[in-house]
Amino acid sequence: MNKDVFNEGLLTFLSEATTPFHAVKALSRRLREAGFAPLDEHSNCSPGSGGVFYEQAGSIIALRPGSGPLLESGLRMVGAHTDSPCLMVKPQPEQRNLGYLQLGIEVYGGALLNPWFDRDLSLAGRVSYEDDKGAVATSLVDFRDPIAIVPSLAIHLDREANKNRSVNAQLQMAPLLALNDEKFCLRDFLREHLRERDLEVAEVLDYELCFYDTQPPAQIGLKGEFIASARLDNLLSCYTGLQALLEADGSQWSLLICNDHEEVGSRSASGAQGPMLQHFIQGLLPDAGALPLLMQRSMMISADNAHAVHPSYPDKHDEQHGPMLNGGPVIKVNASQRYATSSDGAALFRVLARQESVDVQSFAMRADMACGSTIGPITAGELGVTTLDIGVPTFAMHSIRELAGSDDAWALHRVLSAYFRQPAPLFAGPR
């Protein structure tokens, strides 16, 4: 695989993965095509056996067993997250105002709201329903076509809009679907959509749906230097970790986990602060008491996008720590442990990057500003494993359309591939 092929695959994945559920579907399909099998009670996870994966709603774990005993070699883990800030539909969303039909929404995560105005929006997610036999079933939906929009207020009606316009999500962000139809009910609309797919649906009982921008991902710039897309944070890392895992040579125990709910704190059954990963790892061990020993010999790389220094806002960065697009993957450091990076993990990453002729950048927040966080500190705290926070430099994080460099995901892929090949032990220890 070369960079162009990698980026083409990334754009395709970004287009498919419109929600965390669709991201898991796209990831699991690629795993199946590569010979990975769904985990069940009959799965063989012994040394040298085939790869397995386990899904839980919008999260997924994939494992490629190594050639030697797990407790001797340890686990090489990469973590990312499948969710992105968006507009999620409320349970009773129908709003009829002045002859128009809108759907009430709730903002998921720390979304940058202004870019959501005047975009062609579609709707996707998961629908739970009662079938014709009285059983509860679930299906994914993705309308793909633009069916909604959040119109801006004209400048003539708000002359201060370019100077001081705040956004009230409750009053101003409800997407417009149609001229008012007094009979429209979203659940009935979803039922008919599912029936058109030949599913036996008696009643739609519930759903988890979000709006998304229908503009497709693209490689842009005078020389194709950039990748523009929704959900780069953090589907870019999910895809990069997946490709590294698929290309792992099977010599080392290698694991990819992509969690849902990072953007809202990770505290859920399938989030990084839930038991999903720990339960999976314990299932690989002869007894639960072996977990601390395994974690001593393991490492987690938390891959989540990093803030690139913006040419129009350079003062938002520390002068010595302003990552550049296409400058290589970024090691993220924070003294207050908002990132879990330690010096030994960062040192190993630098060695691996040097082996692959990949440049590495550093990010530390200004001392007078607070930074965000990732699944890294959560996973480190839950498992007690050495964890490193890294990411691809990005503009417009949490916007409806983000921007990254077209070289950086490929560069990160090469380093993660080397990480999955790195012989045990990862660290020589104190001397």
Automatic annotation (TrEMBL):
Highest rank taxon of the organism: Bacteria
Official protein name in the record: M18 family aminopeptidase
GO molecular function: aminopeptidase activity; metallopeptidase activity; zinc ion binding
Keyword Lyase in record: no
Any GO BP: proteolysis
One Pfam assignment: Peptidase_M18
Organism: Congregibacter litoralis KT71
Top EC class, one word: hydrolase
Obligatory cofactor(s): Zn(2+)
Family, per entry: Belongs to the peptidase M18 family.
InterPro entries: Peptidase_M18, Peptidase_M18_dom2
Gene Ontology CC entries for this record: cytoplasm
EC nos: 3.4.11.-
